[in-house]
Amino acid sequence: MCNQVLVAYATKYGGTAEIAEKIGQVLRQAGLRTDVLPANRVGNLTSYRAVVLGSAVYIGKWHKDAVKFLTANEKTLTERQVWLFSSGPTGEGYVVELLKGWCFPEAQQPIADRIQPRDIAVFHGNVNMKKLNFIEKWMLKNVQAPLGDFRDWESITSWATAIAVVLKEKDLASGTLSEQ
Questions:
Q1: Low-confidence ranges of the chain (pLDDT < 70)
Q2: What integer pLDDT is reported at residue 91 of this predicted model?
């Protein structure tokens, strides 16, 4: 196993990819070798000692590419340090309250329980009406969903920094040095 970190993501319109890129940037700035890739383009996990996996949330569900990644790599992920995040709810307020107490997709919770991630985060999302199709626009209008970019970059940076601290502490304890 190499001394590298993977940030994998699944997104429909790019908002979650931007969050993943920010996480990757923070990890790299901490001196950790980090790849940021769409979940459907990740091959073998052999070269990664840690994985951060994130997905956009649509109607309470993770993107199919994130679900496929999680399912296909379950055994390997149990042998890695793993962090999971979701992106999606819009509007002001505490993100978990916006999701009515939901922190992770119920359908994938059993896999997450077996993987035992170090942390699961939920971040506010971004709805860009210019990128939506007619049906999606109609649905959002009917449910009166808040529109706009509600991502909290400070919260995302803080979470990524906490991941970097854990991985760097492990480096110090094992005598391993990370390089970009």
A1: 1-2, 89-104, 127-129, 131-132, 134, 136-148, 171-180
A2: 52
Could you read off the pLDDT of 2-26 as tens digits, one per residue?
679 999 999 987 889 999 999 999 9
Q: How far apart are CA 132 and CA 12, in angstroms?
A: 10
Alpha carbon distance 70, 87 (integer Å) = 16
The pair of structure tokens assigned to 13 is 């319109």
Q: What are phi and psi of 105, to 5 degrees?
A: -55, 125
> What is the residue-wise DSSP string for 74-96?
HHHHTTSEEEEEEE---SSS-HH
**Of 43, 24, 63, residue with least CA distance to 164:** 24
d(CA 18, CA 29): 16
Residues 76/44, Cβ–Cβ less than 8 Å? no
Asked whether 44 and 32 are in contact (CB, 8 A), the reply is no
Digit-coded pLDDT (tens) for 71-94: 999 999 999 999 999 987 555 554
Alpha-carbon gap, residue 169 to 82, rounded angstroms: 15
Complete domains list, the chain, with CATH: 4-174 (3.40.50.360)
Tokens of 136: 């999606």
Q: Parallel, antiparallel, or unpaired: how do β-strands 48-58 and 4-10 relate? A: parallel
Is 17 within 8 Å of 155 (Cβ atoms)? no
